[in-house]
Design brief:
Oligomer: single chain
Order of helices and strands: EEEHEHEHEHEHEEEHH
Helix content: 25-40%
CATH class: Alpha Beta
Structural class: alpha/beta
Distance between the termini: 31 Å
Largest sheet: 8 strands, mixed
Number of helices: 7
Radius of gyration: 16 Å
C-alpha cells in the first residue's frame, strides 16, 4: 500500500502569510503526518502530492526524503483524480493537515478497511465533532445520521475507470487523532488548546 499525502493546497481559509502545513505544533504540521505514516509500517512508499501553491512545503518534504508528485494545484479532488492513475496498488490518501495523527490510528484504519473496495472513506460523526468543538463544512448522510469526512480514504486505483462515478464505502471512526484538520485559524487555535 502507498501512503499519499495531499499537501498542495493554498490554505486560503487560514488567512495567514505562511504555508499552512508548515505551521508549528511541536514540529511542522506536515511532519506529524509523514512521521505517523512512516512509523506505522503499513506502506511500501510515502509520497507527497504538492503543487505550485506550496513551494516551501515541497522543499520541506524533499528535505525529509519524501517522494514528490507535482499536481496542477486545482483543488483537492481534481489533484487527487489527476494522480491516482499513477498507482497500481492500494493507496491510503490523507490530508497533510492532521497534526494529532499517530502510527497506531493509521494501523487501526488499515485493518478496518477492505482493500478490495474501490473507494473507502473514513467518516466522523457530527455529534463527536460537536463534542470536540470542531466545526465542519461538508456533511454526508449515512445510515440516517450526519457525518463529516476525515480527510482519509483508501483507494484501489486498479478498480477506477476514468472519471466515472465510484460507489463509496464508509468506515465510521470517532477518534480525536483524525478529527482535527487545520482548515481555519480557529482550528489552529483549538490545536493550541490541546
Amino acid at each position: 500500500m502507498i501512503g499519499l499525502v495531499m499537501c498542495g493546497g493554498k490554505g486560503t481559509r487560514m488567512n495567514l502569510p505562511e504555508e499552512k502545513l508548515l505551521l508549528k505544533y511541536k514540529n511542522p504540521i506536515i511532519q506529524h503526518v509523514t512521521s505517523a505514516l512512516q512509523e506505522s509500517g503499513c506502506f511500501s512508499k510515502i509520497i507527497g502530492a504538492t503543487s505550485y501553491n506550496a513551494p516551501k512545503t515541497r522543499e520541506f518534504l524533499t528535505s525529509l526524503e519524501i517522494s514528490i508528485i507535482q499536481t496542477d494545484g486545482n483543488g483537492y479532488v481534481n489533484d487527487l483524480n489527476q494522480i491516482l492513475h499513477n498507482f497500481d496498488e492500494p493507496v491510503f490518501v490523507i490530508s497533510g493537515d492532521m497534526p494529532l495523527l499517530d502510527a497506531k490510528i493509521i494501523r487501526e484504519i488499515v485493518q478496518l478497511v477492505d482493500i478490495k473496495n474501490t473507494w473507502t472513506t473514513v467518516l466522523l460523526s457530527k455529534n463527536f465533532l460537536d463534542s470536540l468543538h470542531i466545526k465542519t463544512e461538508y456533511l454526508v448522510h449515512y445510515n440516517k445520521k450526519e457525518y463529516s469526512y476525515s480527510g482519509i480514504s483508501i483507494v484501489n486505483p486498479s478498480s477506477l475507470s476514468g472519471m466515472k462515478h465510484v460507489e463509496e464505502s464508509y468506515v465510521v471512526l470517532d477518534d480525536k487523532r483524525i478529527a482535527l484538520n487545520l482548515n481555519t485559524k480557529q482550528d489552529y487555535d483549538l490545536l493550541g488548546a490541546t
